[in-house]
Design brief:
It is built from nine helices and eleven strands. It is an alpha/beta fold. The strands form two sheets. The protein has a seven-stranded mixed sheet, with helices on both faces.
């Protein structure tokens, strides 16, 4: 296989119910020259066995890494990014669904915007049964708002793409805690390193699922009725 044009990084832990759908959405991208790095972060629910199945092994674009013990989503995302063969990296959550042109749109963005370092795309928030709940057409990232209140506007980690060379300079994702999520810490590191976050208007690229045990619910106080 030629060097991939884009690498998806997909950390997972105990998401057997969702990982198949999420991984399939990456396998079915319109742009076929991609790499998919899956980090199994100490799953105990059958996710490891699924990732060792022929369904996964028969796709040469997929690289699977197993952690015997959980190291956290942030560390998994950092590890996957450093292992990426491509310069363009896109994150993915293990219960989300990437629309078929996500890789294609991300590659086109960096081709058309060679000075861009990170881009955030529109997304749609969905519930447990794939029901569409909220659409986020997005807006430019507001750095001052983030510094003042921690708000990230419409920033959505599984709807971003960035250049590996810029990511390495920032320190990447932090270790999530009761005070902050790993992606919040990544944005903080990114801005402290003097990097910018761009926004690509248009159609969404990902269906972002919010469940009752998601980090958004736990750490950001987001607890709508439909998440349960």
């Amino acid at each position: 296989m030629t060097q991939p044009l884009l690498t998806f990084v997909l950390p997972t832990k105990n998401r057997l119910e969702w990982i198949g759908e999420s991984l399939t959405s990456l396998m079915n991208q319109s742009e076929k020259n991609i790499e998919i790095i899956v980090i199994n972060d100490g799953s105990t629910d059958g996710t490891k066995e699924f990732l060792e199945s022929d369904f996964v092994k028969n796709d040469p674009r997929i690289v699977v890494i197993h952690h015997e013990k959980s190291e956290g989503a942030g560390q998994s995302r950092n590890e996957g990014t450093l292992l990426a063969q491509s310069q363009i990296v896109a994150q993915m959550d293990d219960d989300d669904i990437a629309l078929a042109n996500r890789a294609e749109k991300t590659i086109e963005w960096f081709k058309d915007n060679p000075k861009s370092e990170m881009v955030n795309f529109p997304y749609v928030r969905i519930g447990h049964m794939n029901e569409i709940m909220e659409s986020f057409p997005g807006e430019n990232f507001n750095e001052e708002m983030f510094k003042e209140s921690g708000r990230v506007n419409y920033f959505c980690n599984p709807a971003v793409g960035y250049l590996k060379e810029n990511f390495i300079d920032t320190g990447g994702y932090g270790q999530e805690s009761a005070e902050a999520t790993d992606d919040y810490l990544m944005v903080d590191n990114w801005l402290k390193a003097g990097k910018k976050i761009d926004f690509m208007p248009g159609e969404p690229v990902v269906l972002h699922r919010v469940l009752k045990d998601s980090m958004m619910t736990k750490f950001r106080g987001f607890n709508p009725q439909w998440a349960s």
